[in-house]
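User: Need the bound-state model for heme C:
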Amino acid sequence: MSKWLVVFSLILSVVMGLTIWDAYRQEFPGYQKAYFNMVELNSQTKSQQEWAGSQRVELKQQNIGELRRLDRCQTCHLAVENPGFTNAPEPLRTHPSLLDSHPPERFGCAVCHGGNERGTTTSIAHGETEGQNKRLLKGEYMQATCYACHTEKTLPPRTTRAVMQGKKLLNVNMCLRCHQINGEGGNEGPDLSEVGSRRDWMWTYAHFINPQAMNLVSTMPRFQLSRDEIKYLTIFLATMQNNRDKVTDNRFIAHKSADPNWRWPEKQAGGQTSVMKGANLIPTLEYEGKELFTGAGCKTCHSIGRSGGEVGPALSYIARKYDRDTFVRLLRNPADVFPQGLMPQLNLNEKQVQALADYLSTLK
Ligand code: HEC
Ligand code: HEC
Ligand code: HEC
Ligand code: HEC
Ligand code: HEC
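Assistant: Bound-state model below.
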């Protein structure tokens, strides 16, 4: 009996190993080959063509000793510094500004975007597998990481507004009655000085909506907070990093004030309508709704069947209640469907919105 168990688990681990290896093998080499091909197809000069021909598929990593980081995001995001790729689909699009002042070889990517900088598959690098606590920060949530090196003095006020609002709300709600930050405050709840390294932003957000749903024995009160207030508190808490994640090296701290007219880059539209030659060579990740439901974090708050969180309503039969159009509107902007509700803006891209709307429509 036990012999078969050993044989069976051996087979199982080989199969699992192969699956992981396969995912690893397929994803980034596909993007790299597509990139080199696209450079070649769109090249204007002989030297560009030669460059493309001489490239090899390999892990790309920035070893940033001063920040104790090994950043591999460019293994897939190869075109960030190539000005010719503004019309390409992700992950091969030119970066919207900021890289002149924060060059990748000095800063890497995760220092602003969050995510798991060592990951080499999309879901792991973007911090979207279950149990990770390094989910990509998007949109306003990125202010938390700007604040690691900038203050309200070196960036235009609107660029740190969410962090400032969060700090204010922490005082207004007297969170330090129960919590400590940097040695100040009460002891009823855990110390929050490093909570941003310990908890994914989505966990923190969900915990504000309903502490008991995230921790059965929690004695933390449910505050009457609005969607925006929860967002601001969550962004502020994401700035609370441990010594490993904190930027302490003075050479990386901004001292000069940025141009007061500096603007946050415009969110770029889909990118799938690309006109670049060879864009069709980029392998597209086919999202499976169920997988994305976990990846996009829905499962933190919602259950389907018996699995998932209890912060938001159960969704097992949700297609009986709403049509597909409503799902699309909700996923693009929850406030559009629930103006007074608490579900967060997840900054999903359009591909994700459509895949999730398809999936939700099957839940009857
Ligand atoms: C294995 C390849 C891969 C790696 C490694 C990777 N990415 Fe991505 N990234 C992608 C793909 C593919 C997309 C486009 C996804 C889509 O269309 O939904 C993307 C999209 C993005 C986006 C845009 C998200 C959006 O709203 O659509 C950001 C920001 C991003 N990546 C940041 C990062 C950062 C930061 C890292 C490193 C921590 C990283 N990526 C590592 C493949 C990768
Ligand atoms: C100084 C901070 C900073 C650094 C460093 C940085 N980014 Fe960004 N990035 C931004 C900001 C700000 C945006 C606009 C995002 C938004 O509004 O959601 C952005 C946008 C993006 C987008 C497009 C997302 C969209 O909404 O269209 C991708 C993909 C991306 N960055 C990847 C990277 C990669 C890969 C690197 C490393 C080479 C990197 N970034 C380095 C700040 C940074
Ligand atoms: C790891 C530290 C670090 C992070 C994180 C960081 N910056 Fe910077 N930033 C700097 C440094 C250093 C400078 C150069 C200015 C100086 O030396 O005082 C700078 C300069 C700038 C400038 C002025 C130059 C320009 O490009 O116009 C802007 C604007 C700026 N940062 C925006 C941002 C934003 C927005 C974020 C978050 C998305 C961010 N930074 C995140 C360190 C950082
Ligand atoms: C009456 C006391 C009390 C007050 C006031 C209070 N909390 Fe809590 N908090 C707790 C307790 C107890 C826990 C631990 C149980 C749990 O995880 O819910 C906790 C947990 C947390 C956690 C999770 C920390 C972790 O790492 O697990 C966060 C984040 C948090 N509180 C933030 C806040 C913020 C922000 C405020 C103010 C808006 C606040 N709390 C007000 C008692 C309180
Ligand atoms: C941080 C918690 C949280 C996350 C993450 C979250 N939701 Fe929600 N969701 C809620 C809450 C709370 C509601 C109830 C309405 C409100 O308050 O906005 C809700 C409502 C809904 C509803 C309507 C349910 C009904 O019975 O009316 C759907 C559908 C839904 N969410 C889908 C999703 C999907 C899909 C995702 C992932 C892309 C997601 N949610 C992520 C908290 C969350």
